[in-house]
């Protein structure tokens, strides 16, 4: 069964988006007209009563969205790994002396050279799912790659300083 998100206009306040969990809990986000956001938790006994509310700054809302998005993406990759014989997921760090640090992801030609797909880039506490070929890699980035053991090993050598 799919997740149902209910949207409720709150006159003079903004909009509330609400999700009911499988365990019967109700959580949501109130987006105020002035741009503020509140994470809300509803009283299970009273559907109209908010039990707790946490105001979020833009940075906090973005960090929470990144955490949720990253955990879902990595969970899906883990599921793929369990169901695909010989297909692995690996995180590889871009070293400071990598020939690709400061260059677009497309310059690596990872898929054509190794058969590996780079499905995300982790930079600090931010995740960039499905980065395009124009995404510029930086030293310290962690690429999340999916492929065979051989292909992942080739990618590791490719992005290391030894590759050029």
From TrEMBL:
Gene Ontology BP terms: potassium ion transport
SUPFAM superfamilies: TrkA C-terminal domain-like
Pfam families from the UniProt entry: KhtT_N (PF25991), TrkA_C (PF02080)
InterPro entries: AAE_transporter, KhtT, KhtT-like_N, RCK_C, RCK_C_sf
GO molecular function list: monoatomic cation transmembrane transporter activity
Ranges of residues in domain RCK C-terminal: 75-161
Top-level taxon of the source organism: Bacteria
Annotated protein name in UniProt: Cation:proton antiporter regulatory subunit
Organism, as annotated: Phytoactinopolyspora halotolerans
């Amino acid at each position: 069964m799919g997740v149902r998100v209910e949207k409720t206009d709150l006159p003079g306040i903004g909009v509330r988006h609400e999700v009911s969990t499988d365990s019967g809990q109700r959580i949501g986000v109130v987006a105020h007209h002035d741009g503020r956001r509140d994470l809300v938790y509803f009283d299970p006994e009273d559907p109209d009563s908010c039990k707790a509310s946490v105001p979020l700054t833009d940075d906090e809302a973005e960090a929470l969205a990144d955490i949720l998005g990253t955990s879902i993406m990595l969970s899906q990759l883990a599921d793929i790994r369990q169901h695909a014989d010989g297909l692995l997921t690996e995180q590889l760090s871009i070293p400071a002396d990598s020939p690709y640090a400061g260059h677009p992801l497309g310059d690596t030609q990872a898929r054509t050279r190794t058969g590996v797909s780079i499905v995300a880039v982790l930079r600090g506490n931010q995740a960039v799912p499905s980065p395009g070929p124009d995404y510029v890699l930086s030293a310290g980035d962690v690429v999340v790659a999916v492929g065979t053991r051989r292909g992942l090993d080739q990618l590791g050598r490719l992005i290391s300083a030894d590759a050029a």
